[in-house]
Amino acid sequence: MTKRTKRRVLGALLVVGLIVVALFGRPAFYIARAMWRDRDDIAALPPGELDDVSRLNRAKVAEVWKMPADPVMAEDQLRALLRRAKAEKLPVSIAGARHSMGGHAIAPDGVAIQMAGFNRMEFDEESGLLTVGAGALWADVIPYLDTRGRSVVVMQAYDSFTVGGSLSVNCHGWQVGKAPFVSTVESFRLMNAEGNILTCSRTENADLFSLASGGYGLFGVILDVRLRVVSNERYRVERAIFPAERYETEFARRVESSPDAEMAFGRLCVVPGEKTFLREAILTSFHRDPAPDGTLPPLKRIADAGLPRAIFRSSIGSDYGKSLRWDVEKNVVTAIFGSYFSRNQLLHNGVDRLQERSADRVEILHESFVPKGQVPAFLDQLRAIIPRHDIDLLNITVRTVRRDDDTILRYADGDMFAFVFLFNQPLTPEADTKLEAATREIIDATLALGGRYYLPYRLHATPDQFRRAYPASAQFFEGKKRHDPTGLFQNGFFRRYGLGTP
Ligand SMILES: Cc1cc2nc3c(=O)[nH]c(=O)nc-3n(C[C@H](O)[C@H](O)[C@H](O)COP(=O)(O)OP(=O)(O)OC[C@H]3O[C@@H](n4cnc5c(N)ncnc54)[C@H](O)[C@@H]3O)c2cc1C
Questions:
Q1: Total structural domains within the chain
Q2: Within a domain: residue 141?
Q3: Taken in order 229, 143, 113, 303, is the CA torsion positive or negative?
Q4: In this structure, is residue 468 part of a structural domain?
């Protein structure tokens, strides 16, 4: 090679190198920085103290009592515990996985029942019903059903929650055309404040069925639940990107009118800026598409999200990171994750994969439901409200939920579009107060459009907002007095909205 050719080759390599750095240097820097900052240093609480996933409800309790796994032993011991607590005037709280965020599963200075591990399961092929212990996580239920060719009908977007906690908030997910979780429940057994076990269904103890579903642990301990299930099937993913204003029309066209659409969620662009913030949407839907030989992809739980986690976390506190993440979601997600999934695979997904793990920051959720026809107006309101506040919005997911005809404290009193907001904030009272102010404005905007908000997150709503969102709340708390006159079952939610304690 002559000197001149060598120089040319070196020059070309330099240009290629500069192009690579220009194209990938900045994203690589942001992703590497997110990995570097991603600490895992949350300290364990001292014995006798409890908190929930928000890490903002730390409280001392008199006693932590773990439900034994054996059902007969558990029922006898639980009855004795409730009698003792009543005699000693100790309030009793019930906890599943404590992923609620307002102390819903904690009564300070009381007895804290831990349901985790109370997870027996039995599937009856003939009736097609699954009986499952209330302390079972969806992460336990999904593999159990998978081996039987079945799947869960309605659950949250993640599998880290207990069945009892899911029923007590009456959760919903991204399953298309479905009412909240209780619509899939045939019956459940509940131990009340007297220590009696009652079977509750739409025909037996119907009053308690409607109160304790979505009843936030205020009517007794749900022991086990009988659930309808569906077949586990193979789904094909479809994705569409369009202006956010068109969300309702695109959803109607691509999902509601598609007879094979089973699951769907939307994401909204949260990159700050007049031209970007809530201006674009991605709709991802999953459609029944059996393999020619009928096989299903094998079920596996993804333990660590690796690169997707780093890309997600690069958006914290960074407009560029948010824009990078949006570009990745729009352009390369299908290439990374593939096109075919089993239903169970889509549901077998833990919250910890993307969640904040550092001691000084936390992620907080809020969810608003708005009736059909109101999505464009709600987006307008959000574009005005959110930029006014010093808060870090990482994500908005959009889903739909059908009318709930079962519960008293219902958030879906019609078919609704559900907007789930994910915020990241420093773990300080100041940051919590800032988010409280923003959340109250979002709730006012939601209520003005005839919407509702979801109850398991921070208790930021004022009591007046709570009553406006839940017009049957008076009936709910009258039911509480009827079924638990001494107020044995308590928690942060009841104290704030039922007893009026600040
Ligand atoms: C990252 C994240 C994502 C989420 N995604 C969704 C979603 O997609 N859809 C959705 O609907 N919700 C979602 N949630 C909210 C979640 O569904 C609720 O917080 C749910 O309660 C969590 O279940 P858990 O087992 O942690 O319940 P806990 O928080 O432990 O308890 C919740 C309530 O249920 C009561 N309870 C629990 N077990 C029993 C029992 N056996 N008997 C009587 N009462 C009981 C408790 O007293 C408490 O009031 C999400 C939450 C987080 C943190």
A1: 1
A2: yes
A3: negative
A4: yes
User: Is there a contact between 98 and 104 (Cβ–Cβ < 8 Å)?
Assistant: no
62 in any annotated domain? no
Q: pLDDT tens track of the chain, all 502 residues?
A: 677 777 777 777 776 666 666 667 888 887 888 888 888 889 999 999 999 999 999 999 999 999 999 999 999 999 999 999 999 999 999 999 999 999 999 999 999 999 999 999 999 999 999 999 999 999 999 999 999 999 999 999 999 999 999 999 999 999 999 999 999 999 999 999 999 999 999 999 999 999 999 999 999 999 999 999 999 999 999 999 999 999 999 999 999 999 999 999 999 999 999 999 999 999 999 999 999 999 998 898 765 668 888 999 999 999 999 999 999 999 877 666 778 999 999 999 999 888 899 999 999 999 999 999 999 999 999 999 999 999 999 999 999 999 999 999 999 999 999 999 999 999 999 999 999 999 999 999 999 999 999 999 999 999 999 999 999 999 999 999 999 999 999 999 999 999 988 6
Q: What is the rounded CA–CA span in Å between residue 407 and residue 472?
A: 10
42 within a domain of the structure (yes/no) = no
Q: Is the dihedral of CA 162, 165, 170, 174 positive or negative?
A: negative
Ligand 1, atom nearest to 94 Cα: 47
Cα–Cα dist 152/227, whole Å? 9
pTM of the model: 0.95
Query: Range of 368's domain?
Result: 115-502
Q: Spell out which residues line ligand 1, taking CB within 6 angstroms.
A: 53, 93-100, 104-105, 115, 134, 156-158, 161-162, 164-166, 168-169, 171-173, 216-217, 221-222, 351, 365, 456, 491
